[in-house]
Amino acid sequence: MxxxxxxxxxxxxxxxxxxxxxxxSLEVATGEIFGFLGPNGAGKSTTIRMLCGLLAPSxxxxxxxxxxxxxxxxxxxxxxxxxxxxxxxxDDLTVEENIHFFSGVYGVPRELRAERxxxxxxxxxxxxxxxxxxxxLPGGWKQRLALGCAILHQPPxxxxxxxxxxxxxxxxxxxxxxxxxxSVSGHTIFVSTHYMDEAEYCHRLALMYRxxxxxxxxxxxLKEQLRSHALFVLESSDVFGSLQALAGAPGVRDAxxxxxxxxxxxxxxxxxxxVREELARRGISIERLERIQPSMEDVFVAMIEEQERxxx
Length: 312
Hints:
CATH topology of the largest domain: Rossmann fold
Structural class: alpha/beta
Distance between the termini: 43 Å
Mean pLDDT: 90
CATH class of the largest domain: Alpha Beta
Low-confidence stretches: none
Oligomer: single chain
């Protein structure tokens, strides 16, 4: 049986009295695109920095490519590529100079550097911009260059920490196409994001909140968990009045602002009649009340609210 590319067992990171990562346990299979989804401050980046051997855990253990992150951090770093949301590039160097620099940093053998440079330039679509200063590149091109520099040494595992932050939707989509190509070629991709739509691109997800993994599974499987209840979109004459009216109402599990209306989770479809009655009683007219299929954002909001209820 193939050993997992990443193994995490009760990993904890404390900064003084603050617990940034709280007993995280999971495995990532070889060739998998594994997503870390959660808001800023959830512990995603701290976990990734520990897995990259850049930060020592407070307790627990983890292995990456079979190497213990606490005892063998140098071996871990030789077998991974790492890309942060700041792209880790030097803006005062040209595209080609950045590639040369990172070839040296990652110890790419000299006889392979020309071949690897050609690959990165073609993969990133930058063959015609090799002499362009990196700071002059649009965000999407800079993003591709950063990914290319992270894989110059052909690492089997890639850690991408919110790599699409700050780039436009078209560039984000193109970047995910590159991630899929790398996965198909055998790379394991561990990627963190706070974009809910990107969660759909992953084979499996861990939803993180306040340092803990609150849900783990394939996107479709996580959405199936929410389908045991009825999710409705509600558009009314008074959005916030509707939100207040439905808080704690019989048959209503959750209600949250979503776009110009509300997403309301009911115990069953028949509870929609009680929603109509409650809003009518308060003089709020309903423009739309329709059952819909849950999105990953609905799943994440529902999971967080469940955590808050348990904490209360």
